[in-house]
Amino acid sequence: MIRYALACEHGHEFEGWFGSSDDYDAQSAKGLLECPVCATRVVRKQIMAPAVAGTKKTAVPDLPPQMRSMVMEAIGKVRRHVEENFDYVGDAFASEARAIHEGRSEDRGIYGEASPAEVKKLVEDGVPVAPLPPVPPKKTELN
């Protein structure tokens, strides 16, 4: 897996994980990359320093508390929207997503579980998929 630092045309910065640099190139060429903040599909890689084994790791600065709270709230809203409006298909996600994409099943929003290999194959075949944000931690679990 490769992690790229990405930015949209509006300056929102985020990261994306890809099976290979070819996967990033293919998804970018097909317009499958989307900013999680504003949904624009004009997304580009940012310049990144390579991770070199044996170097000292520096601590990543934490988000300011207000921004962290805002991000966690947004993640929670996205997840709640999906859970309230999409059909849960469990571990049949990959096959159902493919069936919808190919017109063999009703066109609707779904969510469920899929292995990394299944997700990779869906993306390679042009089936639009995205990870569901995790359940936000309870306030009692935060530092």
Q: Please give the number of β-strands.
A: 5
Shape: globular
Computed over alpha carbons, the radius of gyration is 17 Å
Write down the secondary-structure element order. Answer: EEHEHEHEH
The major pleated sheet works out as:
3 strands, antiparallel
Walk me through the topology.
Layout: E1 2-8, E2 13-18, H1 21-29, E3 43-45, H2 65-85, E4 87-90, H3 93-101, E5 110-112, H4 116-124
Parallel strand pairs: 4-5
Antiparallel strand pairs: 1-2, 1-3
From the structure above, extract its key features.
143 residues; alpha+beta; three-stranded antiparallel sheet; two-stranded parallel sheet; 4 helices
Task: Describe what you observe in this structure.
The protein is an alpha+beta fold. The protein folds into two domains: 1-48, no CATH class; 63-143, no CATH class. 34% of the residues lie in helices and 16% in strands. It contains four helices and five strands. The chain has helices at residues 21-29, 65-85, 93-101, 116-124, and strands at residues 2-8, 13-18, 43-45, 87-90, 110-112. Strands 2-1-3 form a three-stranded antiparallel beta sheet. Strands 4-5 form a two-stranded parallel ribbon. Strand 1 and strand 2 form a beta hairpin. The longest helix has 21 residues, at 65-85. The mean pLDDT is 83.
Summarize the structure.
The chain has 143 residues and is an alpha+beta fold. The chain has helices at residues 21-29, 65-85, 93-101, 116-124, and strands at residues 2-8, 13-18, 43-45, 87-90, 110-112. The protein starts with a strand and ends in a 19-residue tail after the last helix.
